[in-house]
Specification:
It is globular and about 80 Å long. The chain is an alpha+beta fold and 433 residues long. It has a six-stranded mixed sheet with strand order 3-4-8-5-9-20, sandwiched between helices. Strands 10, 11, 18 and 19 form a four-stranded mixed sheet that branches. The mean pLDDT is 96. It has twelve helices and 21 strands.
Length: 433
């Protein structure tokens, strides 16, 4: 029997509840904290009969874990993980209150609806589907919710893998965010399955000069030097450099579109709203994200700083840093604020086959192609324990929804029926893999 139209599916209700916890992470250790959201997720898991373990390495930066026993405990365990923090939201920029978790006309709105409280809710309810039916997953499933992912996992997954590695005993593979969702390729639908991530380099550019009065002729100006460096770096057009994953991505797009001309950017453009997201996976990106200089209108400061978010292909970090130094010039220093590894795993194997099969079961005939995430996830930390990570938050989305454009953007939203789709796909994956 179907539910009445006015009944909100559990997966959407859970996602809405999670959105209402303002877990904004401002970076650099400044955060509202994830404690209440972690306790909410933990209480949900405990109500299913599971034992939970909490780890709070820094006050209010709470991580929680539970192990779901499988039918075949001799098989390697699977980690199913999400993060509970979100990037900040400026309410005046939004059409709705970003922390109200509003559901309107079948759409869930709010900070985290895309990144990634949607997936957190899908994880919780997929596990509930099995346990409430008296079923078990095929193998042990380790459900984990991390803090601080939006700051590189410094006080979340990075600490957990060092201080609580026993949480992941016996695990060899993991599933998390930013993959498994559908995109429009021309007039067709396709799913992107994430099998890699670019490396992370958060750097600070520091320009120095001579302090002085703002009215002077003053060529040794730190602000001018920094501005020139930021403009040069921000406008750099980095060359395309393909990996095994992006080569396979382009081959998949060519097969779908019939376009075999071999122009990677042209193929990426065939993905419509997702094009800039896909194009970023083909090359290094260097985006200025912050500027700091000066303390009075008529005082020339002796120091100016800029923050740059650098994402590079796995294994090219040192070459990229050398290129950046050449671009900004010898008069500007580069300081590394945070650095993390890149990842790339084969688009093959039992788990990949199982994920592709479940998408095919729930959305028959739609192609699934691999891609390399231009950003990063907590899979980076888990990889230090020998765990191979994939992005698989399955969502069947409308062709006209700019889903990828809402990561860290305004008016984050996701259709409720897409959440239901994802819950069903994940539950069936746990039953069979």
């Amino acid at each position: 029997m179907s539910e009445p139209e006015n009944v909100v599916p559990e997966v959407a209700r859970i996602a809405s509840d999670l959105i209402r916890f303002d877990t904004s992470n401002y970076g650099g250790g400044r955060s509202n904290g994830e404690r209440e959201a972690a306790e909410y997720a933990g209480a949900y898991l405990e109500a299913l009969g599971l034992d939970t373990d909490y780890y709070e390495p820094v006050e209010r930066r709470t991580n929680v874990c539970a192990r779901v026993p499988g039918r075949n405990p001799d098989k390697p365990a699977l980690v199913l993980h999400g993060h509970l923090d979100v990037v900040p939201a400026v309410a005046d920029d939004w059409s709705v209150d970003p922390f109200a978790g509003e559901i309107r006309d079948g759409i869930l709105w709010g900070r985290g609806a895309v990144d990634m409280k949607n997936m957190d809710a899908m994880i919780l309810t997929a596990v509930a589907d099995l346990l409430r039916a008296g079923e078990q997953p095929e193998r042990d499933v380790i459900v984990t919710f991390f803090a601080d992912e939006e700051n590189g996992g410094v006080e979340g997954s990075g600490r957990v893998v060092k201080d609580r590695p026993e949480w992941f005993a016996g695990a060899t593979e993991a599933i998390s965010e930013v993959g498994g969702y559908s995109i429009a390729v021309g007039d067709r639908r396709a799913y992107l399955l994430q099998v890699g991530e670019k490396a992370l380099l958060w750097i600070k550019l520091v320009a120095r000069g001579r302090a002085g009065h703002g009215s002077r002729l003053h060529p040794d100006n730190a602000v001018t030097r920094l501005a020139e460096a930021v403009a040069a770096l921000g406008r750099t057009e980095w060359p395309i450099r393909l990996t095994d994953t992006t080569t396979a991505l382009l081959a998949g797009l060519a097969q779908i579109t019939g376009d075999d001309a071999g122009d990677p950017d042209a193929l990426a453009q065939r993905t419509g709203a997702a094009a800039s997201f896909v194009q970023s996976t083909l090359r290094t990106t260097t985006n200025p994200t912050g500027l700091t200089a000066g303390y009075k209108h008529n005082v020339i400061p002796d120091r100016a700083e800029a923050l740059i978010d650098v994402r590079v292909l796995p294994g090219t970090e040192e070459a990229a840093l050398a290129d950046i130094q050449r671009i900004v010039g010898d008069g500007v220093d580069i300081e590394i604020v945070h650095r993390d590894i890149g990842l790339e795993v084969p688009f093959a194997g039992g788990l990949v086959d199982a994920m592709v099969a479940q998408l095919g079961r729930h959305d028959p005939g739609v192609p699934v192609i691999p891609y390399l995430l231009g950003a990063g996830t907590d899979n980076k930390a888990l990889s230090t324990l020998g765990i191979s990570g994939y992005g698989f938050a399955p969502l069947r989305l409308p062709a006209d929804l700019d889903f990828t454009g809402m990561f860290h953007g305004v008016d984050e939203r996701v259709p409720v029926d897409a959440l239901e789709f994802g819950r069903r796909v994940l539950a069936d994956l746990l039953r069979t893999y």
